[in-house]
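Give me structure tokens for this 242-residue protein.
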Amino acid sequence: MDLGLKDRRALVTAASRGLGRACAEALAAEGAEVFISSRDAAAIEKTGNAIRAAGWFAADVSKPGGPEGLVEQARARLGGLDILVVNAGGPPPGTFQSTPLESWEAAFHLTLMSAVRLVKAAVSDLKQSGQGRIVFITSISIRQPIGNLILSNSVRASVAGLAKTLSRELAPDGVTVNSLAPDGILTDRIRELKLSGANSPMGRFGDPAEFGAACAFLCSKQAGYITGQTLGVDGGSLLGVH
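Here you go.
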């Protein structure tokens, strides 16, 4: 199936590894011109060369000015934007009682405000695209809270609210807005949390490439009437019925 992504201009954040890289690779494989970023200059350059990205830039999207500068770099390199994949590293683990107050503010800027600033900076390009796509990478925690992840459970849910609201606001401009909610995809984050793939209904971890394929589909021409949705990429681990 031709996903209609050839020469589409995409910005993918936090893409030096893990889920962001998987999305960038999938888009590039479909012929998109992909611009990637992360905070680590050496890592993003290495990934950029490996996946033959159209360009890359080191940026800290949790800091004011970071997302705006990144979008400007991507726009200058690509000549505009058709796709924005919003990703950021997860907040640190912890319970409510073990998490200091200052960590809440840091998580707010890392997870929510980075998304707000990226969309704010890119939305004019996406509205002009004719096939504008926004994909937020969130977590199963927006539907099913995870123990010892109080920050992720709380702040990622606000991104889901942002995505749903944006989907209605931007629908008249032909821009779709969706979220991907992963669980059990084998990344460094999963290794850090020491989770087991045996707990999945499928008895295994998901491959990052499977997650990237879902992202590419949501960015595709065929997904033009899918918006405001949260797609679980979780091997069936969500217990809820919706």
